[in-house]
Amino acid sequence: MNSYQEQSIYPNLVLLLSGKRKCGKDYVSNKLAEYFKNNEKVCLKLLTISAPLKKAYAKENNLDYEQLLDSSEYKEIYRRKMIEWSDLKREVDPGYFCRLAIENLFSTLYETKETNGKFFIILVTDTRRKTDLEFFSKSFTNRVKTIRVEASESTRIARNWIYTKGVDDVRSECDLDDVKYFDFKIQNNNYSEITSGLNTLIDFIQNLI
Ligand SMILES: Nc1ncnc2c1ncn2[C@@H]1O[C@H](COP(=O)(O)OP(=O)(O)OP(=O)(O)O)[C@@H](O)[C@H]1O
Questions:
Q1: Could you say which residues bind ATP here (predicted)?
Q2: Strand 13-18 to strand 42-47: parallel, antiparallel, or no bridges (unpaired)?
Q3: Is 117 labeled as ligand-binding?
Q4: Which of 56, 85, 202, 206 is buried most, with the most CB atoms less than 10 Å from its CB?
Q5: What is the CA(46)–ligand 1 centre distance, in A?
Q6: Residue nearest ligand 1's atom 5 by CA
């Protein structure tokens, strides 16, 4: 039994979403959250590993946390520096930001009690590294499923992706490229692909409830 299993809040399912920049990770996450919003049997919570990371970085560097969170130019300016800074933290403790994110979520849920009596799903919206996969697999064992969102380069360019050295060619963006197996692969180049991918995920969840 690991330390999370001893707690009263423990997820029934942990979905780990990954994919290249502008493949649509946030889009897929928001669609799933929307679908299960106000569902009487399911409580789905989005978990963003980069949120506590950005908060800590903003604090240390006297920056605006809210601006770092959205898709603004501000985020692009600091992305590279933030990656380098967080890599140093991870060298000491690979699960540092994952733990911070999950503990923030659990402490909120203790207060709100909104998972009580519901099928509790955590959807991690930005899994980037093998160490992230390892952290969640160790913590939540066979309740973890991995989801890879895929879109072509031309689709991603149309969504304002610009190849950036120091961002697109470093570990935070490429570490999961050589992972051979994902439980689900979702194509997101057009409406029919994404609808079919989302339906597969929703059916999978409905069958577990
Ligand atoms: N299937 C879709 N239909 C319409 N718009 C989409 C679709 N998928 C993604 N988009 C849009 O493309 C843009 C990029 O998507 P999103 O922010 O979800 O990507 P991301 O993978 O989270 O990006 P990043 O890695 O930069 O955070 C957003 O404006 C989003 O609304």
A1: 20-26, 159
A2: unpaired
A3: no
A4: 56
A5: 16
A6: 27
